[in-house]
Design a protein that fits this description.
There is one protein chain. The chain is an alpha/beta fold and 270 residues long. It has eleven helices and ten strands. It has a six-stranded parallel β-sheet. Strands 6-5-7-8 form a four-stranded parallel β-sheet, with helices on both faces.
Length: 270
């Protein structure tokens, strides 16, 4: 039997739109509800307990929207809160770390993989551990925290001189290490993929987990028999809707996001 309820997606801001777009491309008939927690971003500089609290509150909101699945479209939240949400949720929960790690392990040719992420994700080691689970023995893994990338993405500065300078500052050690595969370990980072790609060069494969995550969503819907048809494209943010739409519109296109509503999930007690 078809399940026409929408898929819920949340992120600390607009970065999760990179995952949302891949879900739309692969599953155009599925409805979606997106929540961007811009008012409390970035998550990457927050403590684990705070990220878990925020993620639980976001989950409560999406559950009230009667979603059939929740996608944690944030690497930091996936790293810190996935297990908690999976245990507490009434619907399937999908995280973004494992699909990206698996894709990176399969892409490298020289066995040198770089990971860029927020400080929280790097310090947790969750992405490094995930890549090691899938990579061949002897694979060398290099990590680099790139906290300013989130702010650049949120500002809409995706490919300018400032972004190029920050890329050089953060990515030079990875380039000198000779990596051939680079995991964009934060869903904001694909928005900067042009600038990152220019600096790293064409010989380095950039791994955007969004496509792999969309495939997991598709497979999970099929396995659990909850695929459906729904034209809903709903957007919510904990910041000003106009600001959210101004930054998100150039990326999403299609006249979206539109009709974004404000909602503070910190009203939920968890």
């Amino acid at each position: 039997m078809a399940d026409n309820r929408p898929i819920g997606v949340f992120d600390s801001g607009i970065g999760g739109l990179t995952v949302l777009r891949e879900i739309w491309d692969l599953l155009p008939g599925e409805g979606t509800v997106y929540f961007g927690d811009n008012g409390r971003a970035p998550y990457g500089t927050k403590s684990k307990s705070t990220v878990i609290k925020y993620s639980l509150q976001n989950m409560r909101f999406l559950e009230e929207q009667d979603v059939k699945m929740i996608v944690i479209a944030c690497n930091t939240a996936s790293a810190h809160a996935y297990r908690t949400l999976a245990e507490a949720s009434k619907v399937p929960v999908i995280e973004v770390v494992t699909p990206g790690a698996k894709a990176a392990a399969g892409a490298t040719k020289n066995g040198r993989i770089g990971i860029i992420a927020t400080k929280g994700s790097v310090n947790s080691g969750v992405y490094k551990d995930a890549v090691e689970r899938f990579a061949a023995p002897g694979t060398e893994i290099y990590q680099q925290a790139c906290p300013l990338f989130v702010s650049l993405a949120e500002e809409g500065w995706w490919d300018n001189d400032i972004t190029a300078a920050v890329c050089k500052e953060y990515l030079t050690p990875l380039k000198e290490a000779g990596i051939d595969t680079l995991v964009l370990g934060c869903t904001h980072y694909p928005l900067l993929s042009s600038a990152i790609g220019k600096f790293m060069g064409p010989e380095v494969t950039l791994i955007n987990a969004g496509k792999a995550v969309a495939e997991v969503v598709r497979d999970t819907l099929a396995e659990q028999g909850i695929s459906g048809e729904n034209s809903l494209r709903a957007f919510y943010t904990s910041d000003e809707p106009e600001l959210f739409e101004d930054v998100a519109s150039p990326f999403l296109g299609r006249g979206l996001p539109a009709g974004t509503k404000h909602f503070d999930t910190d009203r939920y007690s968890v």
